[in-house]
């Protein structure tokens, strides 16, 4: 098979997608509770972490840490 095919189905009761190029599986994604790769979050900067060069953030899913955040406000 030459070309690209995107196959959509269910895997263990969850939505799944597979990318097949030239007959070989290139990518496979199963939907879950965790954020998907490349997801963009709205967050509020809580406090800087001095000495670590980062910032603690509040997100809808809880707290997070952002590295190399010098001017985030």
Which helices and strands, and how do they pair?
Layout: E1 4-11, E2 14-21, E3 24-30, E4 44-49, E5 54-59, E6 62-67
Antiparallel strand pairs: 1-2, 2-3, 4-5, 5-6
- Beta percentage is over 45%
- Give the rounded overall mean pLDDT: 87
The residue ranges in which pLDDT falls below 50 over 5 or more consecutive positions are none
Oligomer: single chain
The shape, in one word, is elongated
The total count of strands amounts to 6
**Fraction of helical residues:** under 10%
- C-alpha Rg (nearest Å): 19 Å
Helix-and-strand structural type? mainly beta
- What order do the strands of the largest sheet run in, or round the barrel if closed? 1-2-3
Main beta-sheet annotation: 3 strands, antiparallel
What sequence of helices (H) and strands (E) makes up the elements? EEEEEE
Alpha plus pi helix count: 0
End-to-end Cα distance, whole Å, is 51 Å
């Amino acid at each position: 098979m030459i070309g690209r095919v995107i196959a959509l189905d269910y895997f263990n009761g969850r939505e799944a997608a597979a990318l097949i190029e030239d007959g070989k599986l290139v990518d496979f994604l199963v939907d879950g509770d965790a954020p998907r790769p490349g997801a963009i979050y709205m967050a509020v900067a809580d406090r800087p972490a001095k000495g670590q060069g980062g910032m603690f953030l509040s997100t809808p899913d809880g707290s997070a840490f952002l590295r190399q955040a010098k001017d985030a406000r």
